[in-house]
Amino acid sequence: MTPAENVSRNISRLRRQAGWTQKEACTRLAAITGSRWSDVTWSQAEQVGGGSCRQRAWNAGELSAMAALFRVTVGELLADGGECCTQCEGRPPAGFTCNTCGAGSEAIQGAELTVYRASHHSIVMGLYTTAAAARAHCEADMRCEWPNSLLDWIEDEEDGVAELVAESADGETATGYVVTPLAVASAYDEEDDE
């Protein structure tokens, strides 16, 4: 990956770790820079080049502002993600090893595992060990359909189900892409069948 691609990938990861929507990130960035990015600009900034995407060319002022926004160094924005994997975010589920970065974790006896199901109009696209990976799959599919749309996630605080919406001048439009957390038991419990 190029340094510019690293920055785009890292700001996307950092924004999600902070729990911010793209709109919230724009507002927070405006407090630092004094000028507000449009939601479309932010969405495009998170896109990593390749295919039909044009990679953003980051300037020194933008790098400095992003570093201040996420409370990291410019070097961390430029880093190739050695510290934090984009698939497992450095925290694979108990008893699993990440195929991307090789990070592992010990199994915890009786621990419950959560996997994330990515789906489109109720058709399962895949199961993932992190919500970020499931969301990335949905966003990649959505970008093939509508490459210039501004995307955001609306998450139900009660059950954690997240729905991808496309924003336009007319408001938010449901896309049919959903990420659902699913609890996977580590052992069979006969009492659960009753």
Could you explain how this protein is built, in words?
The chain contains 6 helices and 5 strands; from the N terminus they run H-H-H-H-H-E-E-H-E-E-E. The model has no long low-confidence stretch (mean pLDDT 80). The chain has helices spanning 3-18, 22-33, 39-46, 60-70, 74-78, 131-145; strands at 113-120, 123-128, 150-155, 162-168, 171-184. A 5-stranded antiparallel sheet has the order 2-1-5-4-3. The protein is globular. It is an alpha+beta fold and 194 residues long. Helix content is 35%, strand content 21%. It folds into 2 domains: 3-78, Orthogonal Bundle (434 Repressor (Amino-terminal Domain)), CATH 1.10.260.40; 113-193, no CATH class. Helix 2 (22-33) packs across helix 4 (60-70).
